[in-house]
């Protein structure tokens, strides 16, 4: 028997708010967090914009020594995890720490650490490279640092599936609770890849937009979309076995009821043109949830703003949902916060939970006109207010990774 899994805590660090309250206020207002790229000299770069986290000082959340031993992607994860744990009212001293686990994905870890220390290697020699380089840069340190900071001693892993990392992390945490490996899981994604080498790589593969208008830079499903905007941040949630949460009498925010994961087995960067792989992930999630396509009220799409992704995802939704695809509200949070890579799925899961709680579906900000093949309801021009019983979140990653989660409005 699979156990029921509920959401009891949310935590976020994003380009439009460094906690869930501020983030969701900005989402409801349709605020875009895209602006001039400030992290390095961009005079030789075609890409001029990014969605950067603003006014974040790690020392406001942890002591300075601890902060210095973490790269930003780990700092973001720790801060968001602490917020999620606080909301969930988990008290570790009352828990069996070996029944509390952590799965937090990061697509690349710290490119900043690699850049910084490689420069030292070239200019000053190998003896000057920071001895903590490796434990600071590797992607599993988001999970590791959260585990250390919170005292969670259960299953602790790092899912790395590029831009699907956050969603796969939540899905794997969901499975861990369903099958009894844990009672509580802290899960999601964290990323901080707005660096000279990171931007150069994406720019030269023509994945990033060169638009210099912040309002029209990230425009998923738009006729004139031309690439994504790099973002950064973290989205962390607390998942809990239902009876464990009820025993604590904590507020239950939503229930996770379906998870689908597939591979395109097609190309290292391009999705299957007909969307079959992603469609199958959606169908698997709906099958596990025990629902029909017409019961999904809202889809938070991967929606990057690249030509290939948006078209393939649209085809995938049509393939998975049939005629019902035309009656579902769809949006892309990346229109406001850019693409958080490995953290995207975690933040977008939070949007799904808050949308269910508020009955509010944000518009795809900045997008104004779709092309003939992107012909679904992407909430362009205005948000929507309606009851949401079932929400779906999609993520796709380089390498052909597809992940889908279904979240349900909680009912006893």
What is the general shape? Answer: globular
Number of beta-strand segments: 14
Q: What is the mean pLDDT?
A: 97
- Biggest sheet architecture: 10 strands, mixed
Q: Note the beta-strand portion.
A: 15-25%
Q: Report, as a whole number of angstroms, the end-to-end distance.
A: 18 Å
List the uncertain runs.
Answer: none
For the biggest β-sheet, the strand order reads: 5-4-6-7-1-8-14-13-9-10
Along the chain, the helix and strand elements come as EHEEHHEHHHEHEHHEHEHEHEHHEEEE
- Rg over alpha carbons: 20 Å
Structural class: alpha/beta
Total helical elements: 14
Helix % is: 25-40%
Search tags:
14 helices; two-stranded antiparallel sheet; 18% strand; 412 residues
Q: How would you characterize the overall build of this protein?
A:
It is a single chain. The chain is α/β, with parallel strands linked by helices. 35% of the residues lie in helices and 18% in strands. The protein contains 14 helices and 14 strands. It has helices at 20-29, 64-68, 72-88, 111-124, 133-137, 141-150, 165-178, 196-204, 214-217, 242-248, 276-289, 307-321, 334-337, 344-358, and strands at residues 5-13, 35-36, 49-50, 100-105, 156-157, 184-191, 233-241, 254-263, 298-300, 329-331, 360-361, 384-385, 390-397, 401-408. The strands form three sheets. A ten-stranded mixed sheet has the order 5-4-6-7-1-8-14-13-9-10, with helices on both faces. α12 (307-321) links the parallel β9 (298-300) and β10 (329-331). α3 packs across α6 (141-150), α7 packs across α14 (344-358) and α11 (276-289) crosses α12. The chain is globular and about 65 Å long. The model has no long low-confidence stretch (mean pLDDT 97).
